[in-house]
Task: inverse folding
């Protein structure tokens, strides 16, 4: 097939939290004659394209329907393929990296002072605010009640919505575009300033200063790319890789093999998560309203886990619970009575956890659950069970038990009934959506892939601007920190160009 050649000053690959931000920040350069392209593998979803049906929308928005498996098949990873990347399906909880985490990262220049104005910019742009009490649904109220009855610290999530109708299907994309992701806020601004947005365009490989890409026929009845399907060579003075944690490392592996840092793909972390449920005697309002309004982080320093309120759709929920048959049927038939909690283990960045590629060049993720993470899960399941009972649940279904349900009468036996001996990797459904690392920033090329401004060590034209830059877990919900780092990358590029 013949290859069409196009010339640009800057090509950005991927349009999520990182790529969408960098495109907007660099877009004023178009007024000075710069030609900038934003390539995105996925399509552009308009409001009318979102039916809110669980299976079709998961299939349309996510890589592998949201079930990309790690090589040992004991965890699935959720990340999106769409204009706006995973910000199309995120919940919009907006937390900034704690100072203590930035201190641990120890990347020169990536300090609270440097990031604060960047955080403030995106908090403003994205309309981050707290929902008023009358908009908090029962599921979230029960989370607060449980924490308060136990004397635990509980905090409200700031959220980035405008005109939220409480549809509750945030993780299937927002059918009214209330969530202020990059496809709603930053990309339209970039486009208005002259950035050329090219959906259904997959970057296959980098070839020196060129991006070799394929424009695909449109899927899912979405609008076609402005370029006709076929092979393209985008010649660029600067290339910014923002394809997300899995695909940025994979693209760099396909393009450079071992020629980049020996840390390429390494120190992958993902805050592995479990969904837990407690059944209440009466129906609760759980599917309407913003699904995730509160969190409890008091166990992070001691036991390395976070608890968040959450609400998942029937198939996702059933897939994440243990067991089959009558008991599962019984539990799912009480869907309207279920309170849900998301447990996130704060995993350590370890060198052996990494993104590589297989012979075909597709991404492979190698992840081993450390003893610390498994211990965190046990403590988190026990704590969530206490929370459910403190909120009035009549029975709790928890993984890591020898039975399907635990009742309030057994609450003194929680530590015995929920035990490590029942926690079997591969049998318990673990998933993750906060993917981080693989192209970690740092000063020393022996210990990092990019410099503190996201420029790939040893390359004069190549940058990374997405969650791959994180040297270790951010210990909170990550998107605002990704945007702040992408803002830094754009600043560095603008400085170089001027
Ligand atoms: C269900 C879910 C809920 C979440 N909720 C929250 C939340 O409430 N708060 C929070 O802070 N974070 C949340 N997150 C995490 C957050 O959305 C991500 O951390 C963030 O979007 C990652 O940004 P990124 O730029 O690294 O990658 P992404 O946003 O995933 O963007 C990468 C983009 O690159 C594209 N791409 C990949 N390969 C190529 C290629 N070869 N060529 C062209 N394009 C390519 C992809 O299609 C994708 O659009 C959630 C994530 C998920 C999945």
Result:
């Amino acid at each position: 097939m013949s290859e069409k050649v196009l010339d640009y000053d800057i090509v950005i690959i991927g349009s999520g939290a990182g790529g969408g931000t960098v495109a907007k920040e660099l877009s004023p350069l178009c007024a000075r004659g710069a030609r900038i392209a934003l390539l995105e593998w996925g399509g552009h979803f308009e409001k009318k394209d979102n039916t809110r049906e669980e299976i079709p929308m998961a299939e349309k928005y996510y890589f592998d329907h949201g079930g990309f498996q790690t090589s040992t098949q004991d965890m699935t990873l959720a990340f999106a393929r769409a204009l706006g990347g995973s910000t199309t399906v995120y919940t919009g909880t907006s937390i900034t990296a704690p100072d203590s985490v930035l201190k641990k990262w120890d990347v020169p220049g990536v300090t609270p002072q440097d990031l604060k104005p960047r955080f403030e910019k995106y908090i403003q742009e994205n309309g981050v605010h707290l929902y008023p009490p009358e908009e908090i649904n029962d599921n979230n109220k029960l989370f607060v009640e449980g924490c308060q009855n136990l004397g635990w610290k509980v905090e409200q999530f700031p959220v980035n919505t405008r005109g939220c109708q409480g549809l509750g299907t945030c993780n299937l994309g927002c059918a009214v575009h209330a969530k202020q992701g990059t496809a709603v806020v930053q990309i339209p601004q970039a486009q208005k300033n002259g950035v050329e947005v090219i959906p259904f365009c997959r970057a296959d490989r980098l070839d020196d200063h060129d991006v070799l890409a394929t424009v695909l026929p449109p899927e899912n009845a979405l609008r076609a790319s402005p370029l006709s399907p076929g092979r393209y060579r985008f010649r660029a003075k600067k290339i910014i890789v923002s394809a997300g944690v899995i695909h940025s490392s994979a693209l760099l592996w396909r393009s450079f093999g071992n020629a980049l840092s020996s840390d390429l793909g390494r120190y992958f972390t993902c805050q592995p998560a479990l969904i837990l449920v407690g059944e209440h005697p009466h129906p609760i309002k759980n599917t309407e309203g913003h699904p995730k309004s509160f969190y409890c982080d008091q166990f992070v320093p001691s036991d390395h886990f976070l608890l968040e309120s959450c609400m998942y759709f029937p198939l996702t929920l059933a897939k994440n619970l243990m067991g089959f048959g009558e008991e599962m049927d019984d539990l799912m038939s009480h869907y309207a009575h279920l309170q849900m909690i998301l447990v996130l283990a704060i995993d350590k960045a370890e060198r052996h956890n990494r993104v590589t590629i297989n012979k075909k060049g597709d991404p492979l993720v190698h992840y081993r659950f450390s003893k610390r993470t498994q211990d965190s899960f046990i403590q988190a399941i026990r704590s969530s069970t206490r929370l459910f009972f403190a909120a009035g649940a009549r029975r709790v279904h928890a993984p890591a038990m020898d039975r399907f349900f635990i009742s309030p009468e057994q609450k003194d036996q929680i530590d015995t009934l929920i035990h490590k001996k029942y926690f079997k990797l591969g049998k318990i459904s673990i998933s993750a959506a906060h993917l981080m690392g693989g192209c970690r920033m740092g000063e020393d090329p022996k210990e990092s892939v990019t410099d503190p401004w996201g420029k790939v060590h040893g390359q004069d034209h190549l940058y990374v601007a997405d969650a791959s830059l994180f040297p270790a877990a951010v210990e909170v919900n990550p998107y605002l920190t990704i945007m702040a780092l992408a803002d830094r990358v754009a600043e560095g590029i603008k400085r170089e160009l001027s």
